[in-house]
Each structure stands twice: as C-alpha cells, then as structure tokens.
Amino acid sequence: xxxxxxxxxxxxxxxxxxxxxxxxxxxxxxxxxxxxxxxxxxxxxxxxxxxxxxxxxxxxxxxxxxxxxxxxxxxxxxxxxxxxxxxxxxxxxxxxxxxxxxxxxxxxxxxxxxxxxxxxxxxxxxxxxxxxxxxxxxxxxxxxxxxxxxxxxxxxxxxxxxxxxxxxxxxxxxxxxxxxxxxxxxxxxxxxxxxxxxxxxxxxxxxxxxxxxxxxxxxxxxxxxxxxxxxxxxxxxxxxxxxxxxxxxxxxxxxxxxxxxxxxxxxxxxxxxxxxxxxxxxxxxxxxxxxxxxxxxxxxxx
Length: 302
Known about the structure:
mainly alpha, Peroxidase, domain 1, 11 helices, EC 1.11.1.7, 2 domains, calcium, single chain, heme binding, Peroxidase, domain 2, Secretory_peroxidase, two-stranded antiparallel sheet
C-alpha cells in the first residue's frame, strides 16, 4: 500500500451536500461508471482503491515515478470525468471523482457503503519528486509506515485498518521479491521465514524465476481476492500476508491485537474502515483557490 497525497487545506471546507445544487446526479454517474467497468473486469475495484492511496495524476510528473508505473484504473476515472463533464461542465474535480469511485469500489465488492464529503480541488502542481517522501512501500518496516502515516495525521490504528485494503487487488511479483532469492539453479528460494512455506511455494510457482518482471501479478489476498471482507487479516494470522509491510503487523503487540480483532469480527473491521477511509480521503485536501477543476484528470489546466 502506497500513500501519495499531494493536497493542502482544511478538510472542514468539505461538505456532504457540496454538489447538491451544481451537480445533483454526480454520485449516480460515478457509481454507474464504476459498476460498468467492474462488471467487465473484476480487477477494477482493487485498482481504483489502490489509485486512491497513490492519487497521482499527471503526465511525466508524479505519475512517471516508478512507484506508480503499475497503477491501473486511470481510464475509469477519465470515463467518469467525461460523463460528469457532459452534465456538469467545469464543476467537479477529479479528486472528488476518485474518492467517490474508490468508495464505490469497496461497496461493490462487499464492503461498507460510506457517505463521503466532497468539495476537493485538483492540484495545480504535479512533481515526480513529491512521490518518494510520501509513499509507504511494500518492504517498509512498521516504524517507517508509522512515520508516514503520522506525518499525514493518520493514527497507528488507521495504519492497521487501511492495510485491509489488501483484501482486494493484485500485485506484481517484484513487489515482494525481497522475500525470495534466486539459487544457483535459477529457482526462487524463500528467505523470509515469516512467510508460510506452502503459500511461498504457491507464489514461486506463479512467479517462476521472473520475480522482478512487471508482467506477472498475484492476488493480494489468497483467500477471497475479489471480495472486500476481513479475510486479509485471517490470512495474515496464517502468515500468508503477501508483502513485508503486511507481515510486520504481527511483530507489534498493539497491531497484532488489532489484526486479531478484525480477523474475528468483520463488522468491527467495516466500522473502523469507514472511519479510517474518511480520514484518509479528507487528509490535506485542496479547496477553494488552492486548487482547480481539471478539464482532464491527466493534465493540469494550462
């Protein structure tokens, strides 16, 4: 899970009825777009949710950083934007559309429905140099993740809760390659003993000797990869967390307790997810004159 939030302003300027007069059908248009795309490709919800954590649009700028090379879902946001522009021109930001689409992706895959405030503006600046200081990489330690989350005003509990985003979606083999090594015969061998050996064998079979390639992907959650549920935490307790950043949640008493709580109670996870999602989506947003309404999500207005 990576964080690339490049907003700045006060979330108090957001409102649940922000587009009530200017674009009353906004949420329906976004929902219909996400529903259609998800029906055609079950990987779409995971991609949209991941995209929210990156939130990096822009040609040859933030989006050009290698950490964002494997992102998907841009085309769904652009389709939604085009539909919205037909009925509400120059009114709705790509930032708001992205938050709504990610919210809908969770709900469509079985997760909780969440009412989210809107009123965000799109950034006027997009720099690749802004990416690395703001991401949580899949190989990060717990302390590294805590530092990034804390800098964004998110709590330790938010960290554990938002890690649950890995209950849907997929990742390239290179995202967890540090947990393996190539032996003299060119075969992948497990070096991270915190990973379940049977699961590790399945991963090596899927990835082969091409762990660094970006063409092969595996599901984040080996249990129910297309359903937003608490299976991620159950898999984690079974030492089947795909990333090092997943596995380290078991190494701390506080995070382990939270993992166990969510693994045993899906409703509790959903309650916490809704709250953490709102905090994430309302962190450091641009509003008012601090941003703009992009005409195209991939290009800053010029």
